[in-house]
Amino acid sequence: MSQAAKAQILLTLHNNGKLLILPNVWNPIGARMLESKGFPAVATASAAIAESLGYSDGEQLKLDSMLDMIARIVRSVNVPVTADIEAGYSDSISGLQENISRLLDTGAVGINFEDSWDDSAHLRPIPEQVERIQAVRAVAEKRGIPLVINARADSFFAEGFSSLEDRIEDVITRANAYLKAGADCIYPIGASDKETLKVLRQRINAPINVLASAKTASLKELQEIGINRVSFGPYVFRSLLAKESAMYDEFNNLGSYDIVTNGIFTGSDVQKYLITGKE
């Protein structure tokens, strides 16, 4: 299947009336497991990739390393892959466009694209982010790929707002501007309760992505509200990391083997998700 066709499939998955569930991955085996279980698309998590390689999120991992892992994930599955590229790894338009071109070279057909910096504390001015989204869209169009742009609006995390209502209004203003600039989906990261999501659903005429967390409405509720897409950021990775930490504590305290021997995959269970042969 061509890259353009995969991109079109990914876009369709945002508009078919079903909740697109994307448990973000950080390696090929996780991607293959999702595909084998019937998930129609795969999403990466920048934080999970960076943290699994020993670096903090926030573009601390080299772009080359991030793109290499994205390419490995894309090659591992047949379904569309959307990649979290944070803020594009460049403040300049020319640098951003070069990086998007390199991202497209990996075979990815969608992106998460942030509108903030300083760990989401400060938002880019709307005209600046509009120009950046337009630049991303221009690269994709030149390549003939309908790249699915999931535009983050970080108003719920940013400083400088005095009320929830102000944050909601800023998200809606940004959403309308980003959609006009060429975005396909709006990601109001941090919006989680049902009432806020209902307001956003009523006032944003486009697919909406929600980040799953302990405070987020349930998957069934998200579908009932009309949310189009839910992703999990680094939380799947971090939940597994917590189990790894618990294992090490158990061993260090001369504890039981149960934590590492009960309910684990066998070698043949793992083999289902592996490619035979050399790289």
Structural account:
Helix 4 runs parallel beside helix 5 (93-105), helix 5 packs across helix 6 (126-142) and helix 6 (126-142) runs parallel beside helix 7. The chain is α/β, with parallel strands linked by helices and 279 residues long. It has helices at residues 3-13, 28-36, 46-52, 63-76, 93-105, 126-142, 164-181, 194-203, 219-225, 235-252, 258-261, 267-271, and strands spanning 20-22, 42-43, 81-84, 110-113, 116-117, 122-123, 148-152, 185-187, 209-211, 229-231. The model has no long low-confidence stretch (mean pLDDT 96).
Mean pLDDT across residues: 96
Strand content: 5-15%
Characterize the biggest β-sheet: 5 strands, parallel
Please tally the β strands and state the result: 10
Using brief descriptors, characterize the structure shown.
279 residues; alpha/beta; 3-stranded parallel sheet; globular
List the helices and strands and how they pair.
Elements (H helix, E strand, L loop, with lengths): L2 H11 L6 E3 L5 H9 L5 E2 L2 H7 L10 H14 L4 E4 L8 H13 L4 E4 L2 E2 L4 E2 L2 H17 L5 E5 L11 H18 L3 E3 L6 H10 L5 E3 L7 H7 L3 E3 L3 H18 L5 H4 L5 H5 L8
Parallel strand pairs: 1-10, 2-3, 3-4, 4-7, 7-8, 9-10
Antiparallel strand pairs: 5-6
